[in-house]
Each structure stands twice: as C-alpha cells, then as structure tokens.
Amino acid sequence: MPVKANVTAQPRYYEGAPAWYVRAAREALPVEDFPDLDDLAPGSHAVLVTHGGEIGRASVQLSMDSPQKCHTWRPKSAGPGKRWDALVDGIVTRLEEAGFTNVRRTTMGVWADAPKPASDEVEFLLTPDADLENVGVYHLLCAQYPELTARIDGGFHHGVTSGSGGFVALNSEGKPVTTGYRTPDGAIRAARDYADYCGIPDHLIKIVTVDEKALALLDAAYEAAGPGEHTATVTAAVNTYTVTEQADSLRLETGIPAEAADGYRRERQKRAAKLIAHAMTSGGGTLVVRSRYPDQPITVRGWTLTRTAAEPLPVADLEPLSDGAQAATGPALP
User: Fold this and answer.
1) Which tens digit of pLDDT belongs to each residue from 3-25?
2) Residues 74 and 107: beta-carbon distance below 8 Å
3) Cβ atoms of 270 and 215 closer than 8 Å
4) Are 58 and 21 in contact (CB under 8 A)?
5) Is the entire prediction scored with pTM above 0.85?
6) Smallest Cα–Cα separation from 143: which of 331, 310, 314?
C-alpha cells in the first residue's frame, strides 16, 4: 500500500500503520520537492512510495509529466531522459542522506534498504483470558502504547479443538489481521504479526507471556530490596478463595541471587510467580517482600498487581501487613 507524505503527521505506531521502512522512505523525501502522485501537477513530477518486495526495502516510483505525456518509465529521448536522471539523482541523494543503503536505480525509480531504527523495544504482554471456558484465547496488551490491544484466538472455545484454523490476531475492532498458526507457538507468532501490523519494526518487537512477566516482576521485587534475605508473599483470589504463596531469595550482592538457577528456591519462586500471573490475569492481587539485613531493621515493601505491572503500596497500606517491621515504599516494577 502506498505511503503518502501526510504519514509524518500520524503516530509512528497504530493499527494498520505502514511498514516502518516504507514510512522512512517517504519521510526522507520532502513533500515540497517530491509530492505524492495524487498531487501531480501538469509539467511537474511526483513519487509513489511502496513496499520494495522484501522486508526492509522500499520502492520509490517516479512519475514525470511533460507536454508529450506522463512518464512512468525513463524516457528514451535525450531531453526528458536527462530531466528524469536528475530527479532520480535527487531521490538517491535524499535516501542516502537518511541512511539508506543498497540504493539502486531502476527504470521506474529507485529501490533502497532502510536503516534499522535505533528505538526502544516495544513490549507486549500476552495474557490468557480469565474465563476458563475461553480455551486458547489471549489478550495482547502494551503498557507503552495502551491503544495497541488485540485478541489472540486459537478457536478452541469450550474445549472444541477440531476444525480450528489456528491462532489469529484480532484488532481492536475484532477484525482478523493475520492468518492462522496451527503450531505450539501459534499465539506468539500471531502476536508478532499484530505488532508488525501496527508498524513496529521486527527487531523492536518483544512478546512476553504473563508467566515470564510474573517471574521477572518477582525478581525485580527482590532486586529492589537490595542485598539481604527476602521472603515474598503473593496473595490473590482464586475461585473466590484467597490463596497465598511464599518464596525466599538470598541476595549477597546487587543483581546476583545466591540460589541456584534450577534449585529448590527457584522452583518455589516459579510457583509464586504462577500466582502472580493469575493475579495479573484476573486483575487483582498483592506482592509483599519482607527483607532481613545484617545491621538494619526488618523492612517490608509491597506492590499491587495490575494487568501489566506492579504499583507500589503506600506505607499506610503496608503497616497492617508489616507485623512490627519497618514499612517502606518500593519502586514501581515494570
């Protein structure tokens, strides 16, 4: 699909956004020098910027009007051909200045490979539907861009698996934007397709499952408490019952856990993370870390678990949970 100059006035990422490399090519060509094809004036020229046939490659097709005809290929006659070459040279110069490589002249214009944007990763959280009857249904959320949200559906509702076309991504309007994936990683692949549909470069897409996110949040909570001996208590409602899990961690140095990566303590942490994941899926729960230090008083920090992160509990809410320990406000956990 062609990209017009007004793309610069739109957000970089949104549903149905153009591919990042096509947008980059249109942005590299000033509209006053290279107007859109729709705005081609008599005797002037314009460009059509589209996909170049490969991911990362853009095609710039030139149209040049003359008294004789509108040229969409390089004219063979000397005068129009010289003018065409000058316009193509201008396109090449602009693209190279913008960092494009492998720039090649064609009979219709220019092909070029866009530089990979050095932007931050865009993280999506893949969360199973809280309704246990919706087997194979996930929700895709993005804390950085809350408007980007999708439903990943494997078509396995109510346990019926026969006839499923595989996991597909449905945009915010419920329209499918991907083909089906009938593979074990189908939900992840459909989620990546949705992120690509929003114009996010592939190397910046990060899909995180809620289980991975929950374990990362637990590790971040231990890390926020600093070196010491820590006990994490996770509380969440499961089928109207309040369920609690505890897991210990020993940190001798900042950023370095003392327990083995596959030992008993780590397995307990993974079990606690499962309850964190449930709390994030159902939208409610708490994480409280009680820390013991050699020469300092026992300290308690706590967080409220949301669907995408963990927000610190205020000291006033922590004091009833402190059991005589010193209450402290922890940082927000991403």
Assistant:
1) 888 988 889 999 999 999 999 99
2) yes
3) yes
4) yes
5) no
6) 310
